[in-house]
Amino acid sequence: MTMLQRHWWHELNTWEPEMALAFYGRTLGWQFEPMRLPDGSAYWIAKKDTKPVGGVFELTAPDHDGVPTHWMTYLTVPNMNDAENSTFAAGGEMMRPIVNIPGVGKLAVVSDSSGAMIGLIEPEGTQFLTTPH
C-alpha cells in the first residue's frame, strides 16, 4: 500500500516581506501573525478565517545572497530526524536545518541527490492535514 504524500505547508521566502504581507492580505484576505524563529529570523504565519494556511520567511543578507524570492512547498514526513538521516543516506543535503515553529511543526529544507530543493515538515498535531486557501 502506498501512502499519498500531501502538500502540507506553503512558505513564501521573500526579500520584501511587508510588500508580500500587504499583497496577500489584500488579494487573499490573509491575516498574519508575526513571530521570531529560534535563530532570530522574522517569520509570519499566514491565516485565513483564523486557520494557518502558510508562512512568510524574510530572506536576509548575507545568508541568502543570490536567492530569489520564491514559494517553497513542504511535504509531510512522520519523523524529521529520520527524514534527515534518510536525506544523507540517499545522497541529499540539508539546505536549511530543522527548525521548530510553534503551532506548525518542525521544518527543514533539503536537496535531493540531483540538487532539487524541497521542504519537509513534521506537523505538530493534525490541524493542517487539509490546507484551506
Descriptive report:
The protein has helices spanning 17-28, 80-89; strands spanning 7-14, 31-36, 42-48, 51-58, 70-76, 93-101, 105-111, 117-123. It has two helices and eight strands. The protein is globular, with a radius of gyration of 15 Å. The chain is α+β, with helices and mostly antiparallel strands and 133 residues long. Strand 6 and strand 7 (105-111) form a beta hairpin. Strands 2-3-4-1-5-8-7-6 form an eight-stranded mixed β-sheet, with helices on one face. The model is unreliable at 1-5 and 128-133 (pLDDT under 50).
Question: Can I get a quick summary?
Answer:
This protein has 133 residues and is of the alpha+beta class.
What is the string of helix and strand elements? EHEEEEHEEE
CATH superfamily: 2,3-Dihydroxybiphenyl 1,2-Dioxygenase, domain 1
Q: What overall geometry do the principal axes of the alpha carbons give?
A: globular
Number of helices: 2
Strand order of the largest sheet: 2-3-4-1-5-8-7-6
Any low-confidence stretches, pLDDT <50, length ≥5? 1-5, 128-133
Q: What summary fits the major beta sheet?
A: 8 strands, mixed
Fraction of residues in helix: 10-25%
Q: Which fold name corresponds to the CATH topology?
A: 2,3-Dihydroxybiphenyl 1,2-Dioxygenase, domain 1
The appropriate CATH architecture is Roll
Number of domains: 1
Q: Which whole number gives the mean pLDDT?
A: 87
Oligomer: single chain
Alpha-beta content class: alpha+beta
Total beta-strand segments: 8
Rounded Rg: 15 Å
Strand portion, in percent?
35-45%
Q: How far apart are the termini? A: 29 Å
The CATH class designation is Alpha Beta
